[in-house]
Amino acid sequence: MTQKELIEPLGIEWVPPGKRHGKPSQLFFLWFSANLGMPAWLVGVLGPVLGLNLIQTIIAIILGNLIASLLVGLTAKTGSGQGLAQLPLSRSIFGRRGNYLPAFLNTLSAIGWYTVNTAVGGEALARLFDWPLGLGLLVVAAGQMVLGYLGYDVIHRFEHVMVYVQGLLFVLMSYEAIHQFSSLAPSHAGSYGMFLLEMAAVASYSFSWSPYASDYGRYLPENTPPRHVFWSTFWGTFAGSVWVELVGGVVGALGWGNLSPVAMVQHLMGTLTDFALVAIVFGTVTADAVNGYTATLSLLTLDIPLHRTYAAIFLGILGWIMAWVANAHFLANYENFLLLLSYWVAPWVGIVLVAAARGIINKDRALQASGVNSAALLAFIIGILSVIPFMSTTWFEGPVAKMLDNGDTGYYVGIIVGSLAYHLLLQRQRQKSSARQAS
Q1: DSSP assignment of 269-321, as one string?
Q2: Overall number of domains in the chain
Q3: Residue closest to 251 by CA, chosen among 40, 392, 408
Q4: Cα–Cα distance, 41 to 43 (Å, whole number)
Q5: Quick one: which of 264, 267, 254, 256 has its CA closest to 182?
Q6: In sequence order, which residues have a C-beta less than 8 Å from that of residue 380 and are 6 or more positions away?
Q7: In angstroms, rounded to a whole number, what is the distance separating the alpha carbons of residues 240 and 39?
Q8: What is residue 51's DSSP assignment?
Q9: In this structure, what CATH number is given to the domain that contains residue 73?
Q10: How far is residue 408 from each of residues 73, 196, 348, 402, measured CA to CA in Å?
Q11: What CA–CA distances, in Å, run from 415 to 251, 346, 350, 410?
Q12: Among 141, 159, 299, 408, which residue's beta carbon has the most beta carbons within 10 A?
């Protein structure tokens, strides 16, 4: 027997069989819809802003999204049939208290994305109706809070409908972008360092969904095939991100990258600007429904005694305030925000994939977890520290990044070092355990 409810009663508790429902295909609609928005558009714009030509930007977009979507799909696969959200499930790896660090970082990341989206959507809504900016931000945040309050089933239904609404609006934007090809001036190829930097930004955007991945399949039946979860997540993430980022790449190549996001859209769409502004607003809400819900679940994973619905309201208000305060500095800090996100997520995913291969991830271990798993937590910290020499941001540039002409490879290093460190520390931990048992 399956059960759907208007207001989700559960927080991060295990979902019992009687409440399981849905099909893996709904994950395609959710991830496709969540990526049809301005943040992905701006990732595409970044390529030409960094000095790449359009061909280089397109290659960086495709390669970055292939890597990121593969990892998001693999992370989602680890939660198949477990009935737990992603961060509560990772208690089986880190221990209950050891899991506080990634849960805290994911809460910050989700709120950061919530703020980024609300800032853009609020400005678009204010321009659409000639409202004060604060009112536009408030209305967008209120709609997002309602979705977060209602929870899992309503979010899935909303995202499914928005695939068609957003899809139609972005078809119009794509049509206008194609018509601008004749206005593109010939441009020289950019440096390999800037190519690496753009690919890192592309991968970071999609890759940052990884700690969210199982949140939206936790109600699926226990017998759901893991491969179906993987492919639905992969194609939804890849198709949505690539489409929007390619349109953004054209806009950046037209030389409009120094404008605000909404001004870029106005230049592109002309008389159809109102349709594009609607697309921005809807894109904000589709992404932030996911961001707000995951932020709530991650916050509760810190063992904060708060009901899910109240946590959703609290975090929604916090994100609205941050968007209002940070809006003026949004574009200047966007690239750094994207790259900084990838640094902690990368080693975490590496550890999760090793744990999945060894059969460590499961609901029973997660529900019974206590204390700290030192091997996982130490590997996580080592993985984060390992990326420092490879960072390339305006706030800090590591020595290896300087050697690579400002190219950022910390994303890849974090995955490799995190997974390798966890593998070695896990082996050492098990050898010590075996020795104690023998003695």
Answers
A1: HGGGHHHHHHHHHHHHHHHHHHHHHHHHHHHHTTT----HHHHHHHHHHHHHH
A2: 1
A3: 40
A4: 5
A5: 254
A6: 94, 101, 102, 347, 348, 351, 418, 422
A7: 12
A8: T
A9: 1.10.4160.10
A10: 23, 6, 18, 9
A11: 32, 5, 5, 9
A12: 408
Q: Which residues pair with 397 in a beta bridge?
A: 392
pLDDT at 169: 87
For residue 428, being part of any structural domain is answered with no
Residue in this structure with the two tokens 């502004």, named with its chain if needed: 277
Query: Which residue segment(s) compose the domain that 273 sits in?
Result: 17-333
The DSSP symbol for 80 reads T
What residue type is 152 in one-letter code?
Y
3-state helix, strand, coil in the chain (%, to 5): 75, 0, 25
Residue 365 lies in a domain: no
Q: How far is CA 55 from the centre of its chain?
A: 25
Cβ-count burial 183-211 (b if 16+ within 10 Å, e if not): eeeeeeebbebbbbbbbbbbbbbbbbbbb
Amino acid at 47: G
For residue range 256-285, list pLDDT tens digits in order.
Answer: 877 777 788 888 888 888 888 888 899 899
**Helix, strand counts (H, E) of the chain:** 18, 0
Angle, CA 69 vertex, CA 283 and CA 199 arms, to 5°: 85
Contact, 320 vs 288, CB < 8 A? Answer: no
The residue assigned the tokens 């592109």 is 268
**Cα separation of 118 and 316, whole Å?**
10
Joined together, the tokens standing for residue 387 give 């990326």
Taking the CA atoms of 301, 302, 307 and 308 in sequence, report the sign of the dihedral they define: negative
pTM of the model: 0.92
> Residue 134 corresponds to which tokens in the numbers above?
């604060």
Three-state SS for 235? helix
| Length of the chain, in residues | 439
User: Is there a domain that residue 351 lies in?
Assistant: no
Supply the pLDDT for residue 249.
Answer: 92
Which residues lie across from 282 on neighbouring strands?
none
The span from the CA of 346 to the CA of 418, in Å, is: 8
Per-residue pLDDT tens over the stretch 359-407 = 999 999 999 999 999 999 999 999 999 999 998 877 778 899 888 888 8
Alpha helix stretches (DSSP H) within 151-191: 152-179
